[in-house]
Design goal:
Layout (H helix, E strand, L loop, with lengths): L11 E3 L5 E3 H4 L18
Antiparallel strand pairs: 1-2
Length: about 45
């Protein structure tokens, strides 16, 4: 379990252009906001 205020574990996701981006590669370079939301037009 991840505790509030702890660092996020490293992970990789595709950006809007299909390129792989790793969280560790952004550390110390910029702020990162990761947002999840349910798929549009689906009942939640």
């Amino acid at each position: 379990m991840i505790k509030i205020g702890s660092d996020a574990p490293d992970f990789a996701l595709d950006d809007q252009f299909g390129r792989k981006v790793e969280l560790a590669s952004l550390k110390g370079k910029c702020n990162v906001l990761l947002l999840f939301y349910p798929l549009d037009w689906t009942p939640t």
